[in-house]
Design a protein that fits this description.
This protein has no helices and twelve strands. The protein is mostly beta strands and 178 residues long. A hairpin with a 7-residue loop joins β9 (107-114) and β10. The N and C termini lie far apart (78 Å).
Length: 178
């Protein structure tokens, strides 16, 4: 129905969704919210997640509901993320979308998306990881009788603050190494 001619409440005294108006006396109400993408996933701590978190809201007849206020909630301590928005309104396809960036604490956690009137929230399983070594390559010539052996260490992300104490020498078949 045309939203301009739609009363703010339906005949049951349920508030109609802003910008949407179901034809007939009753406004469709949210029945379920589900995570449709962005779970599970992981990223290096303090980095953005690759995929947005997308929740879908439908009514009791599985019709997608636009105009539904959706609240995303992160853990208040420990491993968590910051979101592009914590409250979003579903689009015409019933989808509410946010982007997430991991905080600096390593670990697993769950972000929830909820809507008023729906008992069970949608859940997104996320993991903040430590940087990982992608490769270690000897950069010098054959180290026979060399006083030192240089290596290039490549990580899966930019890292800072490293020094020689962050590495452990692992050898076999030689003696006197340090």
């Amino acid at each position: 129905a045309a939203p301009a001619y739609c009363p703010s409440m339906d005949q049951r005294e349920f508030v109609r969704r802003s910008g949407f108006c179901d034809s007939g006396a009753f406004e469709a109400q949210p029945a379920t919210i589900t995570a449709v993408s962005g779970t599970p996933q992981q990223t290096v701590a303090s980095h953005p997640f690759a995929d947005p978190l997308v929740a879908s809201v439908v009514d009791g007849y599985n019709n997608h509901l636009g105009g539904i206020q959706t609240t995303f909630t992160t853990p208040s301590s420990g491993a968590s993320a910051s979101l592009s928005s914590y409250i979003v309104t579903t689009d015409i396809n019933g989808s509410g979308t946010v982007t997430a960036s991991a905080n600096d604490v390593v670990g697993s956690y769950v972000i929830t998306a909820s809507v008023s009137g729906v008992t069970f929230p949608a859940t997104f399983s996320l993991v903040n990881t430590n940087p990982a070594v992608s490769s270690i390559l000897r950069t010098g010539s054959n180290p026979t009788n060399a006083a030192s052996v240089p290596f290039a260490v490549t990580f899966n992300t930019s890292v800072t603050g490293l020094d020689v104490t962050d590495f452990i020498l692992s050898v076999s078949g030689i003696s006197g190494e340090s």
